[in-house]
Amino acid sequence: MKLITVALVCLLVAGMWLQDADSKSLLVQAPRCCFKFVKRFIHPSTVHCYRHSSSSCSHGQGIIFKMKRGREACASLKEWWVSGSLSKLEYCK
Questions:
Q1: Residue 36, in any domain of the structure
Q2: What is the DSSP letter of 46?
């Protein structure tokens, strides 16, 4: 009888601990990755701000442009126009 009580208490504590650990993992933001890159030139006047994609992304580093109308577009750092556009834009906070 004592063994069953100890086992039930251990299961209850383990269940509470797992629930607590799971709720904290929801606070971690998912990495922002680019899966497709825009090839065409995006004029800086149409862009609100930019940020870098996560370094853990499998498709390589990219720049995520947040457009003034709320949409987002990804561009590769290898494109000729991207580095010139970054100097004219604000970084997204």
A1: yes
A2: G
- Answer yes or no: pTM beyond 0.85: no
| Structural domain boundaries enclosing 11 | 2-86
Q: Domain count of the chain?
A: 1
Task: Give 39's DSSP letter.
Answer: -
- For residue 14, being part of any structural domain is answered with yes
Rounded CA separation 12/4 (Å): 12
- CATH number of residue 78's parent domain: 2.40.50.40
| pLDDT 10s digits, 4-62 | 877 666 666 666 655 544 444 444 445 688 888 998 999 999 999 999 988 888 777 78
Question: How far, in Å, CA of 83 to CA of 54, rounded?
Answer: 18
Calpha distance 42→52 (Å, rounded): 16
